[in-house]
Each structure stands twice: as C-alpha cells, then as structure tokens.
Design a protein that fits this description.
It holds the Pfam family CreA. The protein is built from 2 helices and 8 strands, in the order H-E-E-E-H-E-E-E-E-E. The protein has 158 residues and is of the alpha+beta class.
Length: 158
Amino acid sequence: MITLMIINRIILTIFMTCLFSSIRVHSEELGSVDTAFKIFGPDHKIVVEVFDDPDIKNVTCYISRAKTGGITGGLGLAEDTADAAISCQQIGPIILSDKITQGKVVFRKRTSLIFKKLQVVRFWDQKRNTLVYLAYSDRMIDGSPKNALSTVPVVSNH
C-alpha cells in the first residue's frame, strides 16, 4: 500500500514537472566563480546568468545562483541549494501593454534532477509604476523561504 502511494506520487511529480516545464526562457551564462574545490567532478560554484523578460521589451534580469559540483553535480544528479540573487534593469524604453498578468513566471530553471527549480515571477505595482521580480526556489513537496527581489521603475515620458 505504501509502495503504491510512493509510486503514484513519483508519477504525479514527473507529470507535473513535464506539464510546467513548458515555460522556458533562454538564459545565457555570463560566468562563474568556484566556491569549493572537489577532487572528483566540477567544483561547487556560483553561476551568473542573464535573461530578458519574455513579455516586456527592454527589461533584462541577472541571476546569480549556487551550482553543486562533485560527481553528482557533474552528472546532473545533484540538488542545488536555494541560494540565489536577482537584479533587473531597464535597458531601453519600456512600453507596457494594457494588461500585465500578475504573478507570471518569466523564468524557470531546473536545479535538481526532477523535484526542484529556480523561478522568477513578475508582478506589476500599478500605484508606483514599478515592475517587481521575485526569485525563489521551490520543490514539489517542501520549498524554501529563501528569496530575492528586484524592481524596475517604469518612468513615463508624458
């Protein structure tokens, strides 16, 4: 009975991962720094990546995140920690559409084989004319409260 429940949970997890992995925003790796030497496999490191908001032209976000090394990290089987930082900037004129979806996932990256991912969600603070980007890591069963926030004020040229 317990084995069947575990199998069902695994199947549901794989299904949900496939279903929600369709949100893919291309990111570029700008560079990395080693944080711990590993004799076998790559070192632990902090990776810096950049991506453009897929819906709002001229907003670019930079993310730094932990990446686990070692043998399991080199094989893509390790689970990265939930540590991440984000900074978003306006790189040109921003033109907003009439309707911005609140809480839209604009970036998602897998940080373990199946169960964990780093996400960036965008919010619109209409009262203050500001785009808000929240970076956090979640897991299917138990997420982390660690998060980072960046804002991009949208200045009107009226």
